[in-house]
Amino acid sequence: EDGDYIKLCEEYNCLIETIPKGNGWRVKHLHNYNGFWLNPIYIKANLLLHAYFKPHPTDIFLASFMKSGTTWLKALMISTINRHRYSFSDHHLHYHGPQSTFPFLETELHSYPITDFTDMSAPRLFSTHFPRTLLPPSVTSCKFIYICRDPKDVLVSKWFFMNKIRDKDLPPLSFDEALDLFCQGISDFGPIWEHVLSYWRASLDAPDKILFLKYEEVKEQPEAMVRKLAAFMGEPFTKEEDEKRVVENIVNMCSFENLSNLEVNKTGVFKFGKAEVGNREFFRKGKIGDWQNYMTEEMKERIDGIIHEKLKGSGLTL
Ligand code: A3P
Questions:
Q1: Full-prediction pTM beyond 0.95?
Q2: Crossing angle of helices 70-81 and 222-232, rounded to 10°
Q3: Longest CA pairwise span in the chain (Å)
Q4: Domain 19-311, what fold?
Q5: 286 in contact with ligand 1, CB cutoff 6 A
Q6: pLDDT tens by residue, 110-133
Q7: Rounded distance between C-alpha atoms, residue 318 and residue 302, angstroms
Q8: Which helix (H) or strand (E) holds 31?
Q9: Rounded Cα distance, 9 and 283, in Å
Q10: Whose CA is nearest to atom 5 of ligand 1?
Q11: Span 6-19, mean pLDDT?
Q12: ipTM tops the 0.90 cut
């Protein structure tokens, strides 16, 4: 097996030398791997994923393009699935940043041998930023929850976040440059439209396996969305739970206001691979339409035009 790993490393080194390069947001360069712009460490992670990760049919994945609501959905999923385990007065989320409540596939795949996750009980929850088309075919039997968001809000959120974690030896990324790269599709796990479409198409093919959500819908109807989540994950809320207002408790527990004010999210850190980031960086404003504070009408038209064009005929609007 180590021989296979050596081959994998050779394949990786060869790829990095030969595939197209573009300007990076966090690191100097992103590389275009099978149509998606990835940080090189995630290209290696993807090779490891295909070679060694063994999905179970009961696994549930949260998939998202960065900055689309991953933190929020992680909190909602973990508190929904564990609602019999924790009380709302003394909850797991009081002591753990949502990001660390269940593993990010790609950041667990930094080294060989990979984490085997055998100590996790079913259903195992994972999150990933990989597009559907970069996942191994063996995940077809697993369930996926996908969250997407207005690309303009994603861009603003991502620009702030990436500047926070950007390599210190690189100059700051200006908003104009970020917007330009974003519109060319060059941003981690981008193009955003291909990412969203990869899950949208898969959800049309297998609606029982992929629940497709929008950040804006969760904001507008959080209780209805939590009910959807619970039913999709196989445990709809019961009458008794409704009498105890469990859904309302979950929504309140996971609200931006509540989570962002917890000590663990003000001062705790989230470790991913060798890097770490303050939990507080995952809570900025949590609003719909903050892009209006950063974009001119012309910038808005540019992004909307591209997204409209790319999604045309798909049945999806963002
Ligand atoms: P903003 O930067 O627009 O505020 P991700 O979790 O995918 O990295 O996305 C981060 C975005 O989700 C940030 O958006 C963050 O503020 C917002 N967010 C985090 N927790 C949230 C919550 N509980 N409710 C609503 N939005 C939340």
A1: yes
A2: 60
A3: 60
A4: Rossmann fold (3.40.50)
A5: yes
A6: 888 888 898 999 999 999 999 999
A7: 14
A8: strand 29-33
A9: 36
A10: 67
A11: 96
A12: yes
